[in-house]
């Protein structure tokens, strides 16, 4: 098992190649993580969060997590001593056009860079506006929890291997040796959502990765199991706030 190290929650930006990332680590400060280009995922033992360019991910201090990038990505991070959101678990937050520009501008130079008094005063004002915008940012339901029960985890693994698998919970239960009733109960207790909700989240996560790799919307809809391209677009827009074919996806 790789060593889980503490890393500084710096403010700055870095390029990450497609498929690259940062191994499990934790910070002693809170952090906002945003992909100015590409798609970003943050994973903990509890599950994963995924964010295209319209979302940022809040990571509380002390949370062991890892990052993965899909498509050529530029990672922007903002380290915070305070907790302006009052959240004690990771969350995906809506990034408005104004908040996007604030994050990009604020992370253009690290906090540790020497600055003139005038420049530092400007950064403090910029930071204040950035925090104000963060407090106004609604959360988006992009969380994909990880199953703990071995029977449910086996079902989830089958669908991770093929998100387009349309077998019912009853049919999947026969494969893992559990009844539909048992698995439904485990979904609510273990995942905090129904089986259809979890499968939709899984498909959306996979769809974002495929889109970041340049796949067409129609092909992504087919590969992730939607009955039609229009059904995929409607679900995607409802969850992420924009269509899968938009530039920022």
UniProtKB/TrEMBL annotation:
<dbReference type="InterPro" id="IPR003313">
    <property type="entry name" value="AraC-bd"/>
</dbReference>
<keyword id="KW-0805">Transcription regulation</keyword>
<dbReference type="Pfam" id="PF02311">
    <property type="entry name" value="AraC_binding"/>
</dbReference>
<feature type="domain" description="HTH araC/xylS-type">
    <location>
        <begin position="153"/>
        <end position="249"/>
    </location>
</feature>
<dbReference type="InterPro" id="IPR009057">
    <property type="entry name" value="Homeodomain-like_sf"/>
</dbReference>
<dbReference type="GO" id="GO:0003700">
    <property type="term" value="F:DNA-binding transcription factor activity"/>
</dbReference>
<dbReference type="InterPro" id="IPR011051">
    <property type="entry name" value="RmlC_Cupin_sf"/>
</dbReference>
<protein>
    <recommendedName>
        <fullName>HTH-type transcriptional regulator RipA</fullName>
    </recommendedName>
</protein>
<keyword id="KW-0804">Transcription</keyword>
<keyword id="KW-0238">DNA-binding</keyword>
<keyword id="KW-0678">Repressor</keyword>
<dbReference type="InterPro" id="IPR014710">
    <property type="entry name" value="RmlC-like_jellyroll"/>
</dbReference>
<dbReference type="GO" id="GO:0043565">
    <property type="term" value="F:sequence-specific DNA binding"/>
</dbReference>
<dbReference type="InterPro" id="IPR018060">
    <property type="entry name" value="HTH_AraC"/>
</dbReference>
<dbReference type="Pfam" id="PF12833">
    <property type="entry name" value="HTH_18"/>
</dbReference>
<feature type="region of interest" description="Disordered">
    <location>
        <begin position="1"/>
        <end position="21"/>
    </location>
</feature>
